[in-house]
UniProtKB/TrEMBL annotation:
Protein name (record): AraC family transcriptional regulator
Xref: InterPro entries: Homeodomain-like_sf, HTH_AraC, Tscrpt_reg_AraC-type_HTH
SMART domains reported for this sequence: HTH_ARAC
Positions of the HTH araC/xylS-type domain: 187-285
Species of provenance: Phocaeicola plebeius
GO terms for MF: DNA-binding transcription factor activity; sequence-specific DNA binding
Domain of life, source organism: Bacteria
Keyword set, alphabetical order: DNA-binding, Transcription, Transcription regulation
Length: 298
């Protein structure tokens, strides 16, 4: 059985809970093939050749090719030449969804979903060189930024995604109206969600706000992101809850009210389901971590 590319890069790359960066070479893929699935993959070829294949067609990769895959797309990298090299960035879907600056890239990649095409782009030399410099920042980032790593990583990922989106905007061909319609709906959904997720936890509110059925909204969101509307809502609520527990003195009841839960018990069950620990235990663990790992003296 061929390994997944995620398994390979998690073993050999620079990884965190939500991201992984690796410089991919044939020596890391002993079977000669690896499957890309269930994640956001950005692969920039810097040397040699390889093939990227799905069930419909095979793409010949060469230097300056950029591959950008979403969680709902599956493909296999194979036939790597002996001197093949590429820079590979993986983002966990939940992490990508938490980045506001991922939206422009969503809009670009959505045009390729449902058209039996893989998002494979041949960049201009200047574009490829610039993107290589950005990818290279992920390698030393973790070792040099222990205290502020999470914040630096978020900003670096946002910067990288915006740069890729900008490049794709320059090279993308026009798409049919129906694809643009789905993208517009998804864009409006994300905007409405960011403005209302604390007050409204049900899909019906968002579908009504966009003047479409819940079924249609569910289909578009699932098709573009690989996740349900409810998943997107719960991820934002959980991220907000973690931030409030860690960075404020609000008690659990106040946080539950602030996030739109009917009572503290409902919030507690939600948080345990998402994180595996109660809100109080999460706060206690974070406080203990801060005491055990204080900032170094200036």
């Amino acid at each position: 059985m061929n390994p997944t590319l995620l398994e390979i890069i998690q073993t050999h790359g620079n990884r965190t809970e939500s991201t992984c960066y690796c410089e991919l070479t044939p020596s890391l893929v002993p079977t000669g093939k690896a499957e890309l699935k269930e994640g956001f993959y950005f692969l920039l070829v810097t040397n040699g050749t390889a093939q990227l294949a799905n069930e419909y067609q095979t793409y010949e990769l060469q230097p300056s090719h950029l591959v950008a895959l979403t969680p709902s797309v599956r493909s296999t990298i194979q036939a790597m030449s002996s001197h093949f090299q590429s820079m590979l960035l993986y983002l966990k879907p939940t992490f990508f969804d938490s980045l506001p600056d991922g939206q422009p890239l969503y809009e670009q990649l959505a045009h390729y979903l449902g058209h039996y095409q893989l998002p494979v782009f041949l960049l201009e030399n200047e574009q490829a060189t610039y993107l290589q410099k950005i990818f290279a920042l992920f390698s030393p980032c973790r070792n040099n930024a222990a205290n502020y790593y999470d914040s630096i990583l978020n900003h670096l990922c946002s910067f990288c995604l915006l740069q890729i989106a900008d490049i794709l905007t320059q090279i993308r061909h026009e798409v049919p109206d129906y694809a643009r319609r789905s993208t517009d709906i998804f864009r409006l959904f994300k905007k409405t969600l960011m403005e209302n997720y604390r007050q409204h936890h049900d899909i019906g509110f968002y579908a009504e706000s966009l003047h479409i059925s819940t079924t249609y909204l569910s289909r578009i969101v699932k098709h573009i992101t690989g996740h349900t509307v409810r998943f997107h809502i719960s991820e934002l609520l959980c991220a907000d809850a973690r931030k409030l527990l860690e960075c404020t003195d609000l008690d659990i009841k106040e946080i539950a009210e602030k996030l739109g839960f009917s009572d503290q018990s409902v919030f507690g069950k939600f948080f345990v389901k998402k994180t595996g620990v109660s809100p109080m235990k999460f706060r206690t663990q974070r406080e203990r971590d801060k005491k055990n790992y204080p900032f170094p003296n200036a």
